[in-house]
């Protein structure tokens, strides 16, 4: 499958995952989809809590799900939400992606315009990740 096709497929999976978001407080629904090196797609959606610190982003839900299902290598992650200019992973998600998917492409899209995809690398989003601290 061509790269553009895989990118569109992953964004579509994130768009579908977004429908499962549990966002009763912010109403900000986010979907994420991770692509493993084996071609598997693992999805996640954000889950909110009345105690906002307990809220978990879609990217982390997908990553935790993938890791606990035995997947260790990821080549891409797509993040979709209704956000002009596209949604961006938060700092916590950037840190975890830098630890568990450092070489992954990051594709983001506004759910209203899912064919307008922006592309980044994890390293671009967090160039000096905590694990890069000299010993």
Automatic annotation (TrEMBL):
<comment type="similarity">
    <text>Belongs to the cytidine and deoxycytidylate deaminase family.</text>
</comment>
<keyword id="KW-0862">Zinc</keyword>
<feature type="binding site">
    <location>
        <position position="90"/>
    </location>
    <ligand>
        <name>Zn(2+)</name>
    </ligand>
</feature>
<feature type="domain" description="CMP/dCMP-type deaminase">
    <location>
        <begin position="5"/>
        <end position="133"/>
    </location>
</feature>
<dbReference type="InterPro" id="IPR006262">
    <property type="entry name" value="Cyt_deam_tetra"/>
</dbReference>
<comment type="function">
    <text>This enzyme scavenges exogenous and endogenous cytidine and 2'-deoxycytidine for UMP synthesis.</text>
</comment>
<dbReference type="GO" id="GO:0004126">
    <property type="term" value="F:cytidine deaminase activity"/>
</dbReference>
<dbReference type="GO" id="GO:0072527">
    <property type="term" value="P:pyrimidine-containing compound metabolic process"/>
</dbReference>
<dbReference type="InterPro" id="IPR002125">
    <property type="entry name" value="CMP_dCMP_dom"/>
</dbReference>
<dbReference type="InterPro" id="IPR016192">
    <property type="entry name" value="APOBEC/CMP_deaminase_Zn-bd"/>
</dbReference>
<keyword id="KW-0378">Hydrolase</keyword>
<dbReference type="GO" id="GO:0008270">
    <property type="term" value="F:zinc ion binding"/>
</dbReference>
<feature type="active site" description="Proton donor">
    <location>
        <position position="59"/>
    </location>
</feature>
<feature type="binding site">
    <location>
        <position position="93"/>
    </location>
    <ligand>
        <name>Zn(2+)</name>
    </ligand>
</feature>
<dbReference type="Pfam" id="PF00383">
    <property type="entry name" value="dCMP_cyt_deam_1"/>
</dbReference>
<dbReference type="GO" id="GO:0005829">
    <property type="term" value="C:cytosol"/>
</dbReference>
<keyword id="KW-0479">Metal-binding</keyword>
<feature type="binding site">
    <location>
        <begin position="46"/>
        <end position="52"/>
    </location>
    <ligand>
        <name>substrate</name>
    </ligand>
</feature>
<dbReference type="GO" id="GO:0042802">
    <property type="term" value="F:identical protein binding"/>
</dbReference>
<feature type="binding site">
    <location>
        <position position="57"/>
    </location>
    <ligand>
        <name>Zn(2+)</name>
    </ligand>
</feature>
<dbReference type="GO" id="GO:0055086">
    <property type="term" value="P:nucleobase-containing small molecule metabolic process"/>
</dbReference>
<protein>
    <recommendedName>
        <fullName>Cytidine deaminase</fullName>
        <ecNumber>3.5.4.5</ecNumber>
    </recommendedName>
</protein>
<dbReference type="InterPro" id="IPR050202">
    <property type="entry name" value="Cyt/Deoxycyt_deaminase"/>
</dbReference>
<dbReference type="InterPro" id="IPR016193">
    <property type="entry name" value="Cytidine_deaminase-like"/>
</dbReference>
């Amino acid at each position: 499958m061509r790269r553009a096709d895989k990118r569109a497929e992953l964004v579509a999976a994130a768009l579908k995952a977004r429908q499962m978001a549990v966002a009763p407080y912010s109403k900000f629904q986010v979907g994420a989809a991770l692509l493993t090196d084996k071609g598997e797609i693992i999805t996640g959606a954000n889950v909110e809590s009345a105690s906002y610190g307990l809220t978990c982003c879609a990217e982390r839900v997908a990553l935790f799900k993938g890791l606990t299902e035995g997947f260790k290598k990821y080549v891409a992650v797509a993040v979709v939400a209704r956000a002009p200019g596209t949604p961006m992973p938060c700092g916590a998600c950037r840190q975890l992606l830098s630890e568990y998917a450092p070489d992954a492409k990051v594709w983001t899209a506004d759910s209203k315009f899912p064919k307008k995809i922006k592309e980044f690398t994890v390293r671009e989003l967090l160039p000096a990740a905590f694990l890069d601290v000299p010993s």
